[in-house]
């Protein structure tokens, strides 16, 4: 330092704190790591030749400098850089340095399983899920089945044999399509196949079937001779329970087509469930008996199911009355048909 500058400093005429702040800033930039360590440890950073003002970094030197030095501080040509700015810069640099000096996190242990094991369960998935457009396109490419109401006898029987329109297909042994004369005047419709019908694929077998044959014989009729026998449901319900409404709705188009193909002059509904399904009613069988109803334009007479008559022998007389009503209705329909010719 020149002599005249030393003399000015001794007399308190030179802005000594300005040059000290600049010198200290340069020192901080040359040794940031020592300052950073002090900041991280919570101690105030050491400043060379700071005097009383340097004991607290938050206190600016202007506050403690002599009044004479403050009056001469703003001299023309002097570059004033507050001492607090190098400290702030040192703190930022120290934080970055302390972060860089931290030990790296321990590497994950991959010895137990390879890294790609986390995604091994994706191997069974398709590479690209099918889009809705592709599904619609696939359905469009598949040939559409003709409507049930357009099928002939062979096509209708094949459609019923392969039917999966409801849950009853899951446990069936055979579908029970129907049996008899396909150009008959009489059409007998029962409820649903039982255990024996499911095994043999034919309606009304076993003891109930024998009783039905005797009832037909009393009318000078026989199974397969001017008589066609079918059921509302083509598959056996589990445990011989009553079919559910949705099962009836899904199977009814088959029965409607059978009626349209046979063109009977009379339908006999055997049992409460068959009568309620055909007539779309919940009325009791006793209230439905003794009257002529209609299904698909065909007269309908309601009587008891043969299986019920095996348990209630006293109602056989009532069933005979129903059969007589059915015979009279058939004769009237036949006479009307002859008159129209």
Please give the number of β-strands: 6
Structural class: alpha/beta
The run of helices and strands is: HHHHHHHEEHHEHEHHEEHH
CATH class of the largest domain: Alpha Beta
Number of domains: 2
Distance between the termini: 143 Å
Low-confidence stretches: 32-74, 76-88, 95-101, 110-130
Helical content (DSSP H or I, runs of 4+): 40-55%
Widest sheet: strand ordering: 1-3-2-4-6-5
Radius of gyration: 52 Å
- In DSSP terms (H or I, runs of 4 or more residues), the helix count works out at 14
What does the average pLDDT come to? 75
For the record, the CATH architecture of the largest domain stands as 3-Layer(aba) Sandwich
CATH superfamily of the largest domain: Uracil-DNA glycosylase-like domain
Net shape: globular
Oligomeric nature of the chains: single chain
User: Hey, roughly how much beta strand do the residues contain?
Assistant: 5-15%
Largest sheet properties? 6 strands, mixed
Description:
The chain folds into two domains: 14-99, no CATH class; 151-340, Uracil-DNA glycosylase-like domain (Uracil-DNA Glycosylase, subunit E), CATH 3.40.470.10. It starts with a helix and ends with a helix. Helix 2 runs parallel beside helix 5 (84-101) and helix 3 crosses helix 5 (84-101). The protein is an alpha/beta fold and 341 residues long. The protein has 14 helices and six strands. The chain is globular, with a radius of gyration of 52 Å. Helix content is 45%, strand content 8%. The chain has helices at residues 3-10, 16-30, 32-41, 67-71, 84-101, 132-141, 153-161, 195-200, 206-217, 245-262, 272-279, 285-288, 306-311, 316-340; strands spanning 179-180, 186-190, 227-231, 266-270, 292-295, 298-303. A six-stranded mixed sheet has the order 1-3-2-4-6-5, with helices on both faces. The longest helix is centred in the C-terminal third of the chain and has 25 residues, at 316-340.
């Amino acid at each position: 330092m020149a002599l005249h500058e030393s003399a000015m400093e001794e007399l308190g005429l030179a802005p000594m704190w300005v040059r000290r702040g600049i010198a200290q800033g340069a020192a901080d930039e040359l040794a940031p790591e020592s300052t950073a360590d002090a900041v991280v440890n919570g101690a105030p950073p050491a400043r060379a030749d700071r005097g009383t003002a340097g004991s607290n970094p938050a206190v600016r030197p202007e506050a403690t400098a002599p009044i004479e030095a403050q009056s001469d501080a703003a001299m023309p040509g002097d570059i004033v850089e507050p001492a607090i700015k190098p400290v702030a810069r040192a703190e930022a640099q120290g934080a970055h340095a302390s972060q860089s000096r931290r030990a790296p996190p321990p590497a994950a242990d991959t010895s137990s399983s390879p890294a790609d094991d986390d995604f091994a369960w994706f191997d069974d998935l398709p590479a690209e899920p099918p889009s809705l457009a592709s599904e619609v396109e696939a359905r469009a490419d598949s040939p559409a089945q003709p409507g049930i109401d357009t099928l002939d006898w062979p096509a209708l029987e094949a459609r019923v044999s392969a039917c999966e329109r409801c849950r009853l297909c899951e446990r069936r042994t055979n579908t029970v399509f129907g049996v008899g004369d396909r150009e008959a005047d009489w059409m007998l419709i029962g409820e649903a196949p039982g255990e024996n019908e499911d095994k043999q694929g034919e309606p009304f077998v076993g003891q109930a079937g024998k009783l039905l044959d005797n009832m037909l014989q009393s009318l000078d009729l026989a199974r397969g001779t001017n008589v066609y026998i079918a059921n509302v449901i083509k598959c056996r319900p589990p445990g011989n329970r009553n079919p559910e409404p949705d099962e009836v709705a899904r199977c009814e188009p088959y029965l409607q087509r059978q009626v349209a193909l046979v063109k009977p002059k009379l339908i006999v509904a055997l049992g409460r469930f068959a009568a309620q399904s055909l007539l779309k009613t919940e009325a009791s069988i006793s209230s439905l008996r003794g009257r002529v109803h209609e299904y698909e334009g065909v007269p309908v007479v309601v009587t008891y199911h043969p299986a019920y008559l095996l348990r209630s022998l006293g109602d056989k007389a009532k069933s005979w009355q129903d059969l007589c009503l059915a015979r009279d209705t058939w004769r009237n329909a036949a006479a009307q048909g002859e008159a129209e010719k």
